[in-house]
Amino acid sequence: MKVVTTLLKEHPFFTGLADKDLAFLSGCTSNSHYKEGEYLARENTPANHFFLIRSGRVAVETFVPNYGPLCLMTLHGGDIFGWSWLYPPYLSAFDARALTSVRSLKLGGQCLRDKCEKEPRLGFELMKRFTKVATERLQAARIQLLDLYGPHPSQGIPRYDP
Question: What angle do CA 144, 147, 148 make, to 5 degrees?
């Protein structure tokens, strides 16, 4: 059985992070398993964890009144979920539901905040990594919106001719 530090090192989110930093973060980490249909997080509930998805598929959803849950994206092994633990009021912005059996590493939010306060260099490094993921997801959302609301290819793109 692999130790948590090794599992952290194998996840793409922590690629290139120093072994001493991984060992430092391992104290916040537990190995977790979710069965199909179980929730990793629920919208508007305390965001106490950050998840490194090791295997399986996770639906990131939001509830739409008179419609039900709406899947915004699907995460897979190698992805991360949850950064609401970073800022008050520490509430999950979305639901995260296992679509298949999911194995993940679950890192405690309070523990991570405490460690980042003690090691600002590590905190800054983690912030850069979270920001990269957030930017990639915003770009993906933009592309989805362009596809959804953009002109149909047969209509062409409207032009401005003065």
Answer: 85
State the sign of the Cα–Cα–Cα–Cα dihedral 119, 14, 53, 3.
negative
Asked if residue 162 has a cis previous peptide bond (ω within 30° of 0), the answer is no
For the record, the structure tokens of 161 come out as: 């001719």
Q: Can you say whether the dihedral through the CA atoms of 106, 110, 113, 115 is positive or negative?
A: negative
CA distances from 24 to 4, 115, 117, 157 (A): 11, 8, 13, 52
What is the chain's length? 162
Q: Can you tell me which residue has the tokens 């990131």?
A: 60
How far apart, in whole angstroms, are the C-alpha atoms of residue 94 and residue 61? 6
Q: What is the pLDDT along the chain (162 residues), one digit of tens a residue?
A: 579 999 999 999 999 999 999 999 999 999 999 999 999 999 999 999 999 999 999 999 999 999 999 999 999 999 999 989 999 999 999 999 999 999 999 999 999 999 999 999 999 999 999 999 999 989 988 887 777 666 655 555 554 444
Q: Coil, strand, or helix at residue 14?
A: helix
| Alpha-carbon torsion angle 85, 8, 77, 94, nearest 10 | 0
Token code pair at residue 4: 């948590």
